[in-house]
Amino acid sequence: MELLRSNLSRVQIPEPTHRIYKHECCISFDTPRSEGGLFVDMNSFLAFGKDYVSWNYEKTGNPVYLHIKQTPKSVPEDRPLKKPTLLAIGVDGGFDNNEPEYEESYSISILPDFVSLPFPSVELPEKVRIAVDTVVNAVGAERKEQVAAWTAEKKQVSQHALTLQQIKSGIVISPSGWKCAKCDKTENLWLNLTDGMILCGRKNWDGTGGNNHAVEHYKETAYPLATAYPLAVKLGTITADLEAADVYSYPEDDSVLDPLLAEHLAHFGIDFSSMQKTEMTTAERELDQNTNFDWNRIQENGKELVPVFGPGYTGLVNLGNSCYLAATMQVVFSTHSFISRYFSHQSLKMAFEMAPADPTLDLNMQLTKLGHGLLSGKYSIPATQKDAATGDASQEGIPPRMFKNVIAASHAEFSSMRQQDALDFFLYMVGKVERANSTTPDLDPSRSFKFGIEEKILCSSGKVSYNKRDDCILSLNIPLHEATNKDELEALNKQKAGKGLEENDIRASDEIVRPRVPLEACLANFVSSEQIEDYYSSALKGRTTAIKTTGLTSFPDYLVLHMRKFVMEEGWVPKKLDVYIDVPDVIDISHMRSKGLQPGEELLPDGVPEEVMESAKPVANEEIVAQLVSMGFNQLHCQKAAINTSNAGVEEAMNWLLSHMDDPDMDAPISHQTSDVDQSSVDTLLSFGFAEDVARRALKASGGDIEKATDWIFNNPNASVSDMDVSSSNSAQTPAQSALPDGGGKYKLFGIVSHMGTSVHCGHYVAHILKEGRWVIFNDSKVGISTDPPKDMGYVYFFQRIDG
Predict the structure, then answer these.
(1) Fewer CB atoms inside 10 Å of the end CB: C or N, the chain?
(2) Mean per-residue pLDDT for 340-359?
(3) Cβ-based neighbour number of residue 600 at 10 Å
(4) Known catalytic residue at 264
């Protein structure tokens, strides 16, 4: 005990603003359920596994830790589900979210000798008792960040909060024992901040929840003024952290922030500082419902998969619509470059020693943590329970939560819990990794994906220009006219026409017939000649027709092919191509290498007149503007709406207009300065090799859509010719291009990211990876031997160059 007293200065009592980690080690995937438990630093509130806590002591000198150990309780298989005896979350007897029950024990551990003191104990110094109680009762930062990410939109301050009128009724709300004033409900209760009425919440679709008394009370009091009695707070979510309280605005029909909540609660005698959390917020309940969704039913042709365990066979837990991240990172960490950078040549201790004070915010640390988690085999072991769906032994997998938090911190979409495009995430991740390694480019693993692209433009004058850029994917259009089974498709169409059948009328037992397009045709289409209309020739000093051809200046270590299965129909309506791509195990792209400036070729003169550059700027479609103006909208507003929706149509422009009416710059003159585009989208286009001002101009013209912006750049060569690197000879490479990896053109297929669903922003992603001579499926936390890898149904294909 004297040893503890001598280190009291290193113990800190957590404040509501502190991030407390107590569910997962910040440099490994150890948890309180791991063999050595988890150690929480009582000064920084970071958590460490048994094998790593000494590193933190050596780095910080912090000696006092809360040791948390969870052991499973033995529960009879036929025992009914236990109902909570206490309205609490994360405490004994509380709401357990249907998870297995664990016995949690605590002790105080003092390093470096791991001297253990029991907790709770009256002999402990008061400061220690208060600090530990606060940590034990706090919602962990891991959980807070997960809930915050799940909330689709950041909560806004209610427009009714500052003007809320409260009735002086003399009502004093007790700190517990609440009940609905109109029924016997004691859960899901809401306090109306105007009159102090305690009423139950809305009824759920399955009959659970409340009886709608709170919302009915608002409707009854809303006439004739809809803003009367507008705000209610959910009892049981009020704690010292007032921002975490669940406040709902009925007129705004959304969860909101009330900056005067402390004052509004005090009106009813509520001391928020002494309140304990006993109810889930709306976001937390939605999170629980969504993370429990079972993706394990998605298997290859419904076949049972043989689980596989060991180094390199670790699954990733689905955090809620995070399969796009899991599938991508499984393939990425199957490349030698990422394995070397973040596993074989960088230990966890090395990364931790280089990390800042909070390693959870360091990308290098979290990539190393993820790499060791996936590749060490430490966590790829059979779980103790059987998979309920298949009866096969399964693994729990590791949750890439800290990695997702740090990699997506500056991206509004990837930091949310919404489904995302796996390709977009790959490009964004590669860009972040490149910037993180900018001071040590030789160690940058993202360069193994990079290659140079050269575009040759031949104008009718006979002169040429060469534009170069870097990229890390080949995005391939699918030429359906090159399908190899045209006769079969034609016969099927005749059959349907003869029977008067629509596509949806075909019996489920009938064989599905889709166009089969060879991958070679997609690659050939990429390098084929393309005619450019209305091209400005600096040699002719006028507009003419030009021919553009594209080739590669270097071949990367890993070639990533993106199949453009999602195309834009008229009106920018996305459609998924129902097509098979015949992908061989080995491809040769040697014919795709560009040759550069050839003898006898003459370069086009430099310089494009300002008026030509001006013509590339986005202009509002006059018909769309006229129709909107006829509806009574402001002319300037209509022009902005058309420009910001890429002239997609009247309906799209009107939707944009209605959602931006309150923009502070709505009445400002139209400016082609593009500083207001999303920086993460700019970064993605920069990773393609485009110049920044070209990227910003394209994003502005395409309403911020990356794919449309890419198409805009390709379709407006005059807008980018002065910004791209123009080579005067085939040996004049940029420094960046000269440092790119290069080699032969033969590649072997080793990874496939497949997508199931009608849109890249919904459905499910799965990875198939060739490991040790066999294909393995990575379906979130489920890892098994693949019997039928969907080589013809991939969305993104990964090839490794065959040396020699």
Answers:
(1) C
(2) 96
(3) 6
(4) no
* Sheet order of strands, 542-552 included: 530-537, 542-552, 451-459, 464-471, 725-726
Q: Worst-scoring range by mean pLDDT, 700-704, 789-793, 797-801?
A: 700-704
Using a pLDDT cut of 90, give the percent of the chain over it.
47
Q: Taking a C-beta distance cutoff of 8 angstroms, is the pair 759, 772 a contact?
A: no
Is the link from the previous residue into 120 a cis peptide, with omega within 30 of 0?
A: yes
- Calculate what percentage of the chain has a pLDDT beyond 70: 76
- Spatial separation of the C-alpha atoms in residues 418 and 617, rounded to whole Å: 33
DSSP 410-443: T-TTTTSSS---HHHHHHHHHHHHHHHTTT-GGG
**CA separation, residue 528 to residues 460, 522, 551, 555 (Å):** 18, 10, 9, 18
Mean pLDDT check: name the lowest of 30-44, 215-229, 421-435, 728-742. Answer: 728-742
The C-alpha angle 12, 15, 19, rounded to 5 degrees, equals 90
By the 8 A CB rule, do 467 and 720 touch? yes
- 34-64 per-position pLDDT tens digit: 999 999 999 999 999 999 999 999 999 999 9
Q: Which residue has the tokens 């033995």?
A: 74
- For residue 389, what pLDDT is reported? 41
User: Quick one: which of 329, 428, 197, 115 has its CA closest to 769?
Assistant: 329
- E-only strand ranges, 431-508: 451-459, 464-471, 474-476
AA letter at 644: N
Beta carbons of 733 and 782 less than 8 angstroms apart: no
pTM over 0.90: no
Give the whole-angstrom CA distance, residue 148 versus residue 138: 16
Tokens of 667: 């009445």
Token look-up 């360091």 returns 362
**DSSP state string for 83-144:** PPSSS-BSSTTSB-TTPPPEEEEEEEEETTTTEEEEES-TTS-HHHHHHHHHHHHSPPHHHH
Please, which residues have CB within 8 angstroms of residue 663's CB and are 6 or more apart in sequence? Answer: none
Exactly one of 26, 323, 459, 472 is catalytic; name it: 323
Instruction: Establish whether 522 is a catalytic residue.
Output: no
Cα distance between residue 39 and residue 68, in whole Å: 6
The catalytic position among 23, 267, 411, 764 is 764
